[in-house]
Amino acid sequence: MNPVRLGVEFARGEPARWVGHLDLARAMARAVRRAGLPLAYSQGFNPHPKLSFALPLAVGMTSRRDYLEVGLAEPVAPVEFSARLNSQLPPGLTCLQAWPLPEGSPALAARVGAATYAVRWPGSSPEALTAACRRVLEAPSLPDPLPREGKTARDLRPLILGLEAQAIAGGALVRMTLSAGTASTARPVSVLGLLAEAAGVTAPAGPVERTGILAQGPTGLVPLCDS
Amino acid sequence: MDLTDILPLVEKPARYVGNEFGAVRKDHARTPVRIAFAFPDVYEVGMSHLGGHILYAAINSRDDSLCERVFAPWIDMEAQLRKLGQPLFALESGLPLRAFSILAFTLQYEMSYTNLLNMLDLAQCSLFSEARAEDEPIVIAGGPGAYNPEPLAPFIDAFVLGEGEEVIHELISAYRQWDVQGRRGGRQGCLEGLAAVPGVYVPAFYRVDYAADGTVAAVEPAHPGAPARVRKRVIADLSTSVLPQHPIVPYLEVVHDRALVEVLRGCTHGCRFCQAGMVYRPVRERPAGQIEQLADQMLRRTGCDELGLTSLSTTDHSMAGELVPRLAEAHGSRGVSVSLPSLRVDAFSVGLAQAVQRVRKTGLTFAPEAGTQRLRDVINKNVSDTDLLTTLDEAFRAGWKAVKLYFMIGLPTETDADLQAIGDTAARVEEVFRRHAKGRPRLTISLAAFVPKPHTPFQWFGQDPLAELARRQVAVRRSLPGRHVILDWHDARLSLLEAVVARGDRRVGQALHRAWAKGCRFDGWRERFRPGLWDEAFAESGLDPGFYANRQRGEAEVFPWDHLDPGVAKAFLWEEWKRSQRGETSPDCRHGRCTGCGVCPSLSVGLVTG
Question: B360 pLDDT exceeds 50?
C-alpha cells in the first residue's frame, strides 16, 4: 500500500536553530514516533523513515514557516497529526498545520522556487539601506561575495527576486526574496554581504529568519502550502 | 548566559544549548541541593552514558534536589569562553558551575582526566581540593575510575565507589544535614558527613607513606571519621534500578544513539585482564518481563528506532534465547532494530544476532583477545579455536560478510608464536568464508596494547616497554595473510599513558596537573593526543612513567588502591595471577563452582540469574 502523505508546516526558534539538517530530520522523526503516529518506512535492508524537508535550513537560522512531508502507513486526520506532533516536539519546534498531499503529486522539495527572509539590522539607517537595496537591484551582475570553497563566484543578481528595507525601532529590517530549491539557491548571508558592501557598513550578526517558502504557481509565486 | 555571539563560531553548537526533549529545569532559588553532573568528554560521548541518565532522573525526582548537565567544551568552545572570560555553565539553566552545591564528575576513562581539570578551571573553581574556598561547590567523582582514584586525589573532595543508585540519596541527605545545621565545620564538616556514608572516600582524610624504593608503604586514615577501608556499593537487585520515566532525547547524534536498557550487571567469565569483570561483580540479571516492559517504555518515550540491550555480556542473560527474538519481533514491525553490544564467541550468539539483524545487516564483532589456546588459557578467555571457527562458519552461512576481531598484544607470557597465530587465525577465517561465498570477507583485526588495571589478577604485571609493543604490532602486521585484512591499531604511547594513570599514586596527580597546564586536553582523541607534552610533564614532576607502567610488582607490594575494596579479595587476585602463569583456567562461577573471589560474602549479595 502506498503511504498516505501529509505536508507539515513548522516553525523553528531557540534552541532548535542550532541543530543541523540531519539532526533536525532525526529529531522530527523521533517526535513523530513518540506521538505514536504511524510513520512509514522505505523498503530494503536499510529502511529509513519517509520524512523529507522542502528546503534545508542552515544551522543558526530561525524559521517562521518551513515545510516537510511525511509518509504515514495509515491515514491520520491532519488536525490530529498536528496536535499529536506538537505534544512531542522538542523545545524550539512547533507544528503550525498539516495538510494532505494528493497521491502522485510532486514532492514538496520539487516545487520550491524561492524563499523569503527577514533580518534585523540594529543601529542602521533605514534610508541608507533602502538606497543600498536599490543599488543592488539596479546592478547588472553581482558576483557572490562568499563563494563556496573551491567554486567560482556565481552571479547572484538573477537570484535576487526582491530586496527592501523598512524602519523598525532601533534600526532597520531587511526583507529578501531569493531564488531557492529546484532553481539555483542564493544564500541570504551572501546577499547581506552585498547589501552591507553597497551601504558601506558591516553585516548584522543576529540570526536570519526564514519567513516563508514559495512555489511557482500559474500566476506567480505562492506559499508552498497553497501550491 | 547569552551564547548568541559565540555559537556561530563553534563546531556543533547544539552541544551547548541544552533544552532537549526531556531535559528538566528546576528553580534554583527553591531547591537546596543543586548538583551539576559533569562528564569530562564531549556531549555526544557523555549523552551515550546510561549511568548519567539514571542519576539525572534519580536526583531530579527529589523535591529537595536538582541535577543539571555539563560536558567538556571542545577546543573551539574553550577558546571562546576563555577569550570572553565566561565561566563554564550547566546546560539546563545556563548558570555558572560555581552556583551549584555539588559538582559530580564521572570517571569513565583515565584519558579524560585532563578534561576534568580543564572543566574545573573553566568553572573558575580551585583545581586543588585543599585550596577550595568555602563558597565553592563540593567536588565529587564516581564511576570505574574511582577504584583507583589516587592520581585525582589532590583535586577531588570525595570519591564514590560502586553503583550510584542508592548512595546518591545518602550523599544528598548527608549534604543537606550539614547545610541545614548551619554548615557546621565548613567544607571540612561537610566532608566529615560524606565520609560517614558507606562507599564514600575522602582522600584528604588519608595519609600515604612511601617506602625508600618509591612504592607505597601504607595508606592510613588520618582522620577519626575515615574508615580504614572503603567498600564499594552495590544494589542487590537490578530490578530496583529504574530507568528514567522521561529520558532526555538529544538533538545531536550521540555515539550510542539508541534507547538503552541494561539487561544485566556484572560478569563472571573471569577474564584476568578485565577490570569491569572484577569490579562489577556479582552478576545480577534484570527479570525478562521487566526488560520487555522497559524496552517498550524507552522506545515509546524516546522515539528511537534502535534498542540497545546493554551489559558486559548480553547473551549471558539466562533468558536471552527467548527474550531477544521476542523483542525483535515485538518492535521490528515499527522499524525498530535491536542491537547487542558485543557477542560471545559461540553459535548461540550468532543465532541471536541473526534474530535481531532482520532490519539492518551490519558487521559482527568478536573478541578472541589472543591468538593461541595457550595464551587464552593464561588470560582465562574461555574461547577455543574451534569455537571461533564454527561461530564464524555459522555467521558466514547466515550471510554476514564483515567481521571484526579484537586482539590484545603485550599480554603476560606472550611470545612471537602467539602473535603469528593472530595472522594464522585471520587466514583460517578467510578459508571458512570461502565455504560459503566467493572472494574474501571484510575482515578487520583490531589490536590494542594491553593495559594492566588495578583490582585485576594482572595488577602485578609490568606492561611491555613502548619499543617492545611497537615491535609486536609490526609482528602481527607481518603475520596477516595480506594487506586486504584491515588492521586497526591504537597508539601504543596512549596505552603507556593509560597504564601510568590506571596504576598511578597521588604523585601522578602532579604530572596530570602539569600536562593540563601545558595544554593537554582530550588525550583519548587521536588527533588531540600530545605525548611530547606528557613526557615533559612527567620529567618536570620528577616521575618515571616506567615505574608505574612497566615495573613488575611483587606479592608483598602495597598498592595505592589497597584501601579501596571492590569486594573481590586481593588474595583471590594473587591466586588467579599465579594460576595464569601456570596456564590454568578458572571456571565461570555462574555454572556451578564458586571460585572464591569473595564478593558475595563480603558484600552480602549473591548471583541473581534466571
Answer: no
- Beta-bridge partner residues of B332: none
With beta carbons under 8 A apart, name residues in chain A contacting B304: 30, 33
Report the relative pairing of strands B33-39 and A220-223 from DSSP bridges: unpaired
* C-alpha to C-alpha distance for B29 and B16, rounded to whole angstroms: 23
Asked if the Cβ–Cβ distance from B21 to A29 is below 8 Å, we say no
B399 three-state secondary structure: coil
Q: Do B335 and A47 touch (CB under 8 A)?
A: yes
The span from the CA of B582 to the CA of B474, in Å, is 28
Chain A nearest C-alpha distance from B445 (Å): 26
Read off the C-alpha cell for B512.
596530570
Chain A contact present for B11, CB below 8 A: no
**Band (B490; pLDDT cuts 50, 70, 90):** confident
- State residue B357's pLDDT score: 72
Q: What is the ipTM of this complex?
A: 0.90
**Residues B159 and B140 sit within 8 Å (Cβ to Cβ):** yes
Tell me the mean pLDDT in the region A28-53.
90
Give tens-digit pLDDT for A115-155.
Answer: 999 999 999 999 999 999 999 999 999 999 888 888 888 89
Cα–Cα distance measured from residue B183 to residue B190, given in angstroms and rounded to the nearest whole number: 7
Sign for the pseudo-dihedral over CA of B264, B267, B269, B274: positive
- State the maximum Cα–Cα separation within chain A, in Å, rounded to a whole number: 59
Distance CA B286, CA B209 (A): 43
Task: Indicate the pTM of the whole model.
Answer: 0.95
3-state class (DSSP) for residue B241: coil
Residue among B5, B13, B249 minimizing CB distance to A90: B249
Q: What does DSSP assign to residue B228?
A: S
Contact in structure between B484 and B126 (CB atoms under 8 Å): no
Instruction: List chain A residues with CB under 8 Å of B12.
Output: 20
Nearest CA-CA distance, residue B331 and chain A, Å? 12
Q: What is the pLDDT of residues B508-559, one digit of tens each?
A: 999 999 999 999 999 999 999 999 999 999 999 999 999 999 999 999 999 9
Cross-chain residue pair B305–A49, CB shorter than 8 Å = yes
C-alpha cell at B229: 577501608
Are residues B125 and B156 in contact, defined by beta-carbon separation less than 8 angstroms?
A: no
Residue of A nearest to B305 (CA): A30
Span of A6-15, B238-247, B442-451 with lowest mean pLDDT: B238-247
- For cell 576563555, what's the residue? B82
Residue A92: list chain B partners with CB under 8 A: 19
B46 phi and psi, to 5 degrees? -65, -40
Question: What's the pLDDT at B358?
Answer: 58
Percent of chain B with pLDDT over 90: 86
As given in the structure block, the three cell numbers for residue B78 are: 574553550
Of B495, B499, B520, B497, the C-alpha closest to B40 is B520
| Contact criterion met (CB < 8 Å) for A34 and B302 | yes
C-alpha cell at B589: 562461577
| Cβ pair A60:B8 closer than 8 A | yes
